[in-house]
Amino acid sequence: MRPYSLIGALLLVAALCAHAAEPWKRLPATPEIPPHTVGKHATVNGVRLWYAEWGAGNPGTPVLLLHGGYANSNYFGFLIPVLIQNGYHVIAVDSRSSRPCRIEVGL
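RE: above sequence
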């Protein structure tokens, strides 16, 4: 193997690594919320927001799940069943930009 081939291969690997996405820029696959979820809407300060509830008959403490950034309630797909199994009443709310919502005009 010629020394130039080795140097070229090392430069190629270095270039590919330099263009790899930073770990904080990659998101895991979005899980799904539990099947048979019935989404509802509530109007708060003139904004119609999506929410859903699970385990409403559970005697446990209510847990309100609020996502951040550009996410939505689907990111809680693995957490919701665990909370329900442990007796909690789970409520997840999506922010205005994550699911279709409507802003009431004239408020």
